[in-house]
């Protein structure tokens, strides 16, 4: 190692870059194989009605169990799948699996609300989303009102008019669409103006700040005022403490998700939770696990 470093800096960086390129190539190869090897699963995180603690829906979150590298976070591989176009196949798989799973769960727990599926902005360009959604709802039997799509943003949507038309056809089908991670990156006011969405999800970085900094609270209040005047639904992401929950309740926020209530979990755990709680999560003063 020391010897390697002893060579020219250029050589050292070139080597590192080569290693990086190799590991990217490996990741790409493995990502393609993973779909066929069934290494992907979905976890579900409850979304609750803050006032009552009732579970009003679940968000489907993708998990990749790599045989050698272990668990790989979607935050790592989704941007990658977006770049190489694999997001199309992957996104289709997620939509089918989530709708099948939740249509099943609803046969046992008819009061479980919606399933929210993350759709990357790239997917709208790569496939006919409204046709796909129609097909999936048709064959899984999940009612359209029970499906929510969350638009996640890694890059600028280059054709807002096109996506906007797609969203309108989904609206006509009664499928709701939420703008995810609102306030961060590209998910911002200009999208709110141009895209017909049902509501927005306030990113957890903002929720974290509401009880920490007065400016943090001010930003969320401003977002809530915008949502209110545009008649948009709001979901607060990443609620971890009862102080945050109380603050949100004080601001009349209705829906939230976060570790305070439940972590994302495999389907069988979700079923056990619904069984044990009758769909109502009560929060003790000491949350079970709070991870900062
Ligand atoms: P997201 O859609 O904003 O999902 C919420 C993320 O916050 C999830 O991370 C969830 O596990 C995490 N989270 C929930 N509650 C808390 C909390 O109280 N505290 C903290 N610290 N985190 C919390 P995850 O599962 O790692 O997913 C990361 C991102 O990857 C998602 O962010 C979404 O943008 C993307 N993603 C996940 N699944 C899919 C998918 O099926 N398709 C696409 N296109 N993107 C996906
Ligand atoms: Mg999401
Ligand atoms: Mg989000
Ligand atoms: Mg987020």
UniProtKB/TrEMBL annotation:
<protein>
    <recommendedName>
        <fullName>Diguanylate cyclase</fullName>
    </recommendedName>
</protein>
<feature type="domain" description="EAL">
    <location>
        <begin position="24"/>
        <end position="278"/>
    </location>
</feature>
């Amino acid at each position: 190692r020391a010897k390697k470093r002893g060579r020219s800096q250029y050589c050292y960086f070139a080597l590192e870059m080569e290693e990086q390129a190799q590991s990217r190539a490996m990741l790409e190869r493995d990502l393609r194989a993973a779909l066929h090897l069934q290494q992907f699963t979905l976890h579900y995180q409850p979304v609750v009605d803050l006032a009552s603690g009732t579970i009003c829906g679940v968000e489907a979150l993708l998990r990749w169990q790599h045989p050698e590298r272990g668990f790989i976070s979607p935050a790592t591989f989704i941007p990658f799948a977006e770049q190489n176009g694999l997001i199309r196949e992957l996104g289709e798989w997620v939509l089918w699996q989530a709708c099948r799973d939740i249509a099943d769960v609803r046969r046992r727990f008819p009061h479980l609300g919606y399933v929210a599926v993350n759709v990357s902005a790239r997917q709208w360009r790569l496939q006919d989303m409204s046709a796909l959604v129609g097909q999936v709802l048709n064959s899984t039997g999940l009612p359209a009102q029970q499906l929510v799509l969350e638009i996640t943003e890694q890059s600028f949507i280059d054709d807002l008019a096109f996506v906007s038309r797609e969203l309108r056809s989904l609206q006509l089908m009664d499928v709701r669409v939420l703008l995810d991670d609102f306030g961060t990156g590209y998910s911002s006011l200009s999208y709110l103006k141009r895209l017909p969405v049902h509501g927005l999800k306030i990113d957890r970085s903002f929720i974290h700040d509401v009880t920490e900094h007065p400016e943090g609270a001010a930003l969320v209040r401003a977002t809530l005022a915008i949502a209110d005047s545009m008649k948009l639904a709001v979901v607060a992401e990443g609620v971890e403490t009862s102080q945050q929950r109380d603050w949100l309740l004080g601001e009349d926020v209705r829906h939230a998700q976060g570790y305070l209530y439940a972590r994302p979990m495999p389907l069988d755990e979700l079923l056990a939770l619904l069984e044990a709680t009758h769909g109502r999560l009560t929060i003790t003063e000491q949350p079970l696990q709070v991870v900062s």
